[in-house]
């Protein structure tokens, strides 16, 4: 299976995503320069973390008009998988591939820490190697992670099982104060068709217990299991 | 074609949590400005653009706001002024 990792000016988790796909998953990965128009036959597109275009105007607002995003949108429209991590989640929202927006953290501070998220739906292309209710530990590093949408959208996301990850407390209980003030403590969501996912935590930085957690491996294995099948 | 200068405000949508605005309001209260209610912090943009008329310039900027300059989910915008540049 081939993963295409889009590289925007300011992406900084593209190499981590490459490592996840090639060294951990044992699959093929290619970097896709944002000015190109060719997805090079990629089965899965990863919009990686970083600070594309310096987060100017709004995080993701300018990257979403990069030339390759036309092809990424077409790829998504065909029902093919797109994974947006952190800045990639922000870009996917700005591009309209996912509903809502990511606003400045409620604390107004950059958040660089480890968080716990609960798997809310384990029957998806991105989470089938987890169990519903399982609590994962993953790093976050963002200044704009406060998921925001109108009430109708939030109800729809919850009702349709499209909230895939929610911030939780130490032992998996509901987070009293979630790390960035996200509405309904949402950490990751999926599109209505189930093929686009965005999340703020970094699964590609949680691949080895020596670095604190390998809970991110399951996300890549989930895509491999579902897409290759 | 003439050149116009268009000024606009982009502000967080009312009702959405605006932690920056709240921090500013709290600071003003601390300084003794007790009359201050809600504060909203947004962006002020100034664009120089070529257009046939001031009305056309404003129309163009509205289209820019809808596509790029403002996020339709979380922000509102208003044209603050159109002047000859």
Secondary-structure blueprint:
The complex is a heterodimer of chains A (229) and B (85).
Chain A: E1 2-7, H1 14-24, E2 28-33, E3 44-47, H2 68-77, E4 82-85, H3 87-94, E5 101-103, E6 111-119, E7 135-142, E8 146-148, H4 151-159, E9 163-167, E10 186-190, E11 196-199, H5 217-228
Parallel strand pairs in A: 1-2, 1-3, 3-4, 4-11
Antiparallel strand pairs in A: 5-8, 6-7, 6-9, 9-10, 10-11
Chain B: E1 2-12, H1 19-30, E2 43-51, H2 54-69, E3 75-84
Antiparallel strand pairs in B: 1-2, 1-3
The rounded Rg of chain A comes to 16 Å
Number of helices of chain A: 5
Task: Name the chain pair with the biggest interface and residue counts per chain.
Answer: A-B, 21 and 11 residues
Question: How are helices and strands ordered from N to C of chain B?
Answer: EHEHE
CATH architecture of chain B: 2-Layer Sandwich
The CATH class of chain A: Alpha Beta
- Low-confidence regions of chain A: none
Main beta sheet of chain A: 9 strands, mixed
> What gap, in angstroms, lies between the N and C termini of chain B?
12 Å
Q: Give me the secondary-structure category of chain A.
A: alpha/beta
- Measured on Cα atoms, how large is the radius of gyration of chain B? 16 Å
What does this protein structure show overall?
The complex is a heterodimer of chains A (229) and B (85). Chain A is of the alpha/beta class and 229 residues long. Chain A has a single domain, classed as Class I glutamine amidotransferase (GATase) domain (Rossmann fold, 3-Layer(aba) Sandwich), CATH 3.40.50. Chain A contains five helices and eleven strands, in the order E-H-E-E-H-E-H-E-E-E-E-H-E-E-E-H. In chain A, the strands form two sheets. In chain A, strands 2-1-3-4-11-10-9-6-7 form a nine-stranded mixed beta sheet, sandwiched between helices. A two-stranded antiparallel sheet of chain A has the order 5-8. The termini of chain A are close together. In chain A, 54% of the residues are buried. The mean pLDDT of chain A is 95. Chain B has 85 residues and is α+β, with helices and mostly antiparallel strands. Chain B has one domain: Mth169, Chain: A, CATH 3.30.1280.10. Helices cover 33% and strands 35% of the residues of chain B. Chain B has two helices and three strands. Chain B has a three-stranded antiparallel beta sheet, with helices on one face. Chain B is elongated and about 50 Å long. Chain B starts with a strand and ends with a strand.
């Amino acid at each position: 299976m081939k993963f295409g990792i889009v590289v925007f000016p300011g992406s900084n988790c593209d190499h981590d995503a490459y490592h996840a796909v090639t060294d951990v998953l044992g699959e093929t990965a290619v970097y896709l320069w944002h000015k190109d128009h060719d997805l090079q036959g990629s089965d899965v597109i990863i919009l990686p973390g970083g600070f594309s275009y310096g987060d100017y105007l709004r995080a993701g607002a300018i990257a979403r008009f990069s030339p390759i995003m036309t092809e990424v949108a077409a790829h998504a429209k065909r029902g093919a998988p797109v994974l947006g991590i952190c800045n990639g989640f922000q870009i996917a929202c700005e591009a309209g591939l996912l509903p809502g927006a990511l606003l400045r953290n409620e604390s107004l501070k950059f958040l660089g820490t480890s968080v716990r998220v609960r798997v809310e739906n384990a029957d998806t292309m991105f989470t089938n190697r987890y169990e519903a209710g399982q609590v994962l530990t993953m790093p976050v590093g963002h200044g704009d992670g406060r998921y925001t949408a109108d009430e109708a959208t939030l109800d729809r996301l919850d009702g349709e099982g499209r909230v895939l990850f929610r911030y939780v407390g130490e032992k998996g209980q509901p987070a009293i104060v979630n790390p960035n003030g996200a509405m309904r403590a949402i950490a990751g969501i999926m599109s209505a068709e189930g093929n686009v996912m965005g999340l703020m935590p970094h699964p590609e930085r949680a691949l080895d217990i020596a670095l604190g957690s390998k809970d991110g491996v399951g996300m890549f294995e989930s895509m491999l299991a579902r897409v290759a099948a | 074609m003439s050149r116009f200068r268009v000024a606009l405000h982009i502000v967080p949508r009312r009702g959405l949590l605006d932690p920056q605005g709240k921090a500013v309001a709290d600071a003003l209260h601390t300084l003794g400005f007790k009359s201050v209610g809600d504060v909203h912090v947004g962006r002020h943009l100034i664009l120089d653009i070529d257009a046939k008329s001031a009305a056309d310039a404003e129309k163009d900027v509205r289209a820019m706001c809808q596509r790029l300059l403002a996020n339709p989910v979380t922000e509102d915008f208003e044209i603050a002024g159109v002047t000859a540049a």
